[in-house]
Amino acid sequence: MGWVGFVAGRLSGLSRFFSKKRGAPPPVLSILGIAVGVLALIVIISVMNGFQLGFIESILEISSYYVRLESPPPIEESDALIEKIKALPGVNAAVPFREVQALLRGDWGQHAAVIRGLYPDAYTEDPGMAEKLIFEDGSFDLEDSDSILLGAELAGRLRVDTGDTIQLISISSGAVNEDPSTAASELNFTVTGIFRSGFYEYDLGWGFINFDRAGELEGTGYTLGIKLNDRFQDKKAAAALATLVNADSALTETMPTVKTWRDYNRAFFGALRTEKLFMFVLVGLIFIVVGLNIYQAQRRIVLERREEIGLLRAVGAGDRAVRLVFVWDGLIIGLLGAGSGAILGLLISFNIAAVFSALEDAVNAILYLLQRGGDFAVFSPAVFYIKELKARVIPQEVLLIFLFGLLSALAAAWFASGKVSRIRPAEVLRYE
After folding, report:
1. Can you give the residue ranges of every domain in the chain?
2. Mind listing the pLDDT tens digit for each residue in 204-241?
3. Global pTM?
4. Burial call 112-133: b when 16+ CB within 10 Å, e when fewer
5. What are the residue ranges of helices labelled H in 375-423?
6. Is there a contact between 84 and 243 (Cβ–Cβ < 8 Å)?
């Protein structure tokens, strides 16, 4: 079978690229088609991953955590439990928190917000949250019970800066204090930090206060948020946590429940997954078109090479061997197209910010010459809530896209070479 590769190179349409015949050889067009499809799919999926994973990581690191233990024992008894949880395999952090629904009022406006109560050391105990909360002014300072941290958009809506005083109105404080006269009481807090998470909902509607002060507003209950080294090990971690809870008689009395990040924002994560799937399908249609192009080109090559095929059959080559000659042709087309497209796609994805910046500069230069302004932006801050465009390249997805392009060429070549078995050497050579 060693002759198959040699004959494939001689009979391949790629050999016409080096000939003096005019016109673009169909295999070159097929290679370009596969390369463009692989390139486009890698870049689009990488940019989409940058958007989606940015949102997902903000939700997991700031809001929902990877695993939650709800209704744990009283906070006075939580230290031993937290140490046991941290000792579990794969656990990165365990942070208690409380949440308060409140109305914040500044000198120039008011806005509803979710106020989360955290201990002052939560910023160092939870490195994932610290990575997502980028402070534009001030710092994570909750030592004072009257301190509050605000999202950048929320601070802008209230028109406050660090050091300013705002009023927090909690409708649950009356229920906590069992005094109807204190319901919806107004409390003063001092802004000690203004952060930006990259997720508009949190930057506009979230704040952080001292854990004990949140207990005065919401009650003594709290939730234990747990971070993992790998969020996809949440089910395993939840099972280990449930085993720990069932083995501790003190914990079984409070009946704590274990929930993972899959139980929170299920609709949001499902929508992102569906969006990505449909993007795969839509851009993947390129491979179907290119596959049909390869199929037609290979069929034409089979018809043009009837004499050579008849001669190979006459000297003893079997149907399968001759068919493999044309499948080799498809393999070469697929490797060249998918390989070049993957390399270019990765280069663009890893330098996506520079590519879009160059594109914007080129378009703005043309608009300036046409005297139509020069403020074009692919992702305008007026429309998209992003400060920096990032692409996330997932190796498994790149490999899948590469194989998709390669297999489309192989499948087209295989089906197109089906006519080989119907060529009879005697009928072909009779007229030679």
Report:
1. 3-54+268-429, 72-255
2. 999 999 999 988 887 778 899 999 998 888 889 888 88
3. 0.74
4. ebebbbbeeebbebbebbeebb
5. 395-416
6. no
